[in-house]
Amino acid sequence: MTFKAQRQVVDLSGREVYFRYTGSGPPAVLLHESPRSSAALLPLMERLAGRFTVFGFDTPGFGGSDPLPMDRPSSADYADALSEAMTALGIERAPVYGTHTGACIAMDMALGHPERVSVAVLDGYPVFTDAEKEELLREYLPPFRPCWDGAHVAWLWARVRDQFTFFPWYAAGNLGRLPRDPPPLDFHQLVVNDFLRAGDEYRPAYASAFRFEALRPLAAAQTPVAIVAREDDLLFPHLDRLPEALPDRVSLHRLSADRDAWGEAIGNIMVANPGQKTAPQPVVNPGGARRVRRRFIETPCGAAHVRFAGPNNGRAAVLLHRTPGCSAELDDRLARLGRQQPAIAIDLPANGESEASAPHDLAGIVGWIGGCLRALDIADCDLAGEDTGAVFAAAVAAAGPVRIDRLTLAQSSGSPPAPESDASAALCPDLRPRWDGGHLSAAWYWARDSLLYRRWDARTIAGGWRLPDDPPVGLLHARFTGAVLGAQGNEALCRAANAAEFDGLLDRATRRGAAIERFDMPLALCPLHGRA
């Protein structure tokens, strides 16, 4: 049986929370470590899915979840936020599992909301001394702020590599050396991706875990608490910091490094302490007070991530971003369009937060986009795209899965090159992970040059863009992040766009009744359809 976890968003009065869910049976709630997202919970979700409907939440500030609106949130504040999300989803009472930072939140959830927690499973429960807390709060959490020269990119790769070599990560010597092999390169990249999603918001939840008083809550617990740790967890030695005589409600479980045995043990603890009998079916609420709202659409090829603004009814304007890139770059445009009509931006297959299992040939991409539009109940719309997105927009208008009345094409790097075997190199650098972090530098300088020049690979003053006096570092970092998150699909999407016979697509789109506008500028700057 193939494991599949769906993704969705719940709106809590303008603060959005991302979560994954899968399985069947009573609900179980899972919380991840820092600086990860619910993606880190997938191995455990897979092991529990046969016994529970498992909900894995992105902690506020991580993954896709909005941060909490306070300067110094505590783990109790994160527990309150989790209780609010559970209420919105109809989860009244369930086992709550947390690892590392998530373990602190799960413990405070059991203290502050005992009626919601049938058992708190604390995996890798941090028991720091006062001196360790002081040092970690001082040294462990430097600001992560983008800068034009890309110094933060080199720091990020070194930071993640060192995190798997030393503890604390900055103790780069024999005393801090971890007694285990580092994980594979792809796992390093997953952590980098989650770090980029969190940005500087990685610090508040981490800091709340470093301030957490671990021993005092155990005696006050009103619900069962199970403290567990695998022997390969860097916090496994913290089990020895717990008192020998634990309160009656608290149990201790030392587990081997075997992942299946670990999942079985956690499942058994949850089965012995059940919550409500049936799990709710998540309901998508497209409303909300956020300027740009987000949701996932399930397609046969995986989840598509959509950003939208404005009313839910009326004629929509749909935007397709460039590749490499993601729809987040278009938030300002969406918000302006949304003042007058529904405005929608879709992360292309394997870009942004859309899943990587979508098709990458032109016909498959057209079918995928058409399926997204139909899932949004869009039968006709105005469609706009930039560079590769312009090619895909033209192909959708030519194929006609839905009616396109107006087609806006922003081709800031000129017309697509003639089909060649290596044509994708003109639009997309090689961003496959490398041990030396060179792929991140390549992504950063691609993003910089794509803002400085019409063609990043043809850097001439004649082909330069006019920039504001202050370099747009925020836009640059967003473009860089989009390139990195879409690394699995960038090349295939670029090849599909470059292989298209563009003039023929435009001719067929015109014959189908689409009015075409073309601009030599980024999509965010185009006067779309004469509107804002």
Structure overview:
- It is globular and about 80 Å long.
- It has 532 residues and is α/β, with parallel strands linked by helices.
- The model is unreliable at 414-425 (pLDDT under 50).
- The chain has two domains: 6-141 and 200-272, Alpha/Beta hydrolase fold, catalytic domain (Rossmann fold); 293-530, Alpha/Beta hydrolase fold, catalytic domain (Rossmann fold).
- α1 (42-48) links the parallel β3 and β4 (53-57).
- The chain is built from 16 helices and 15 strands.
- The strands form two sheets. The protein has an eight-stranded mixed sheet with strand order 1-2-4-3-5-6-7-8. Strands 9-10-12-11-13-14-15 form a seven-stranded mixed sheet.
- It has helices at 42-48, 75-89, 101-112, 130-139, 151-163, 185-198, 202-211, 216-220, 259-272, 331-337, 362-375, 388-399, 438-452, 473-485, 490-498, 502-511, and strands at 6-12, 15-23, 27-31, 53-57, 94-99, 117-123, 225-230, 250-255, 293-299, 302-309, 316-320, 343-346, 380-386, 403-410, 515-519.
In percent terms, what proportion of residues is strand? 15-25%
Number of domains: 2
CATH C-level class of the largest domain: Alpha Beta
The CATH topology of the largest domain turns out to be Rossmann fold
CATH architectural label of the largest domain: 3-Layer(aba) Sandwich
Question: What is the secondary structure topology, with strand pairs?
Answer:
Elements (H helix, E strand, L loop, with lengths): L5 E7 L2 E9 L3 E5 L10 H7 L4 E5 L17 H15 L4 E6 L1 H12 L4 E7 L6 H10 L11 H13 L21 H14 L3 H10 L4 H5 L4 E6 L19 E6 L3 H14 L20 E7 L2 E8 L6 E5 L10 H7 L5 E4 L15 H14 L4 E7 L1 H12 L3 E8 L27 H15 L20 H13 L4 H9 L3 H10 L3 E5 L13
Parallel strand pairs: 3-4, 3-5, 5-6, 6-7, 7-8, 11-12, 11-13, 13-14, 14-15
Antiparallel strand pairs: 1-2, 2-4, 9-10, 10-12
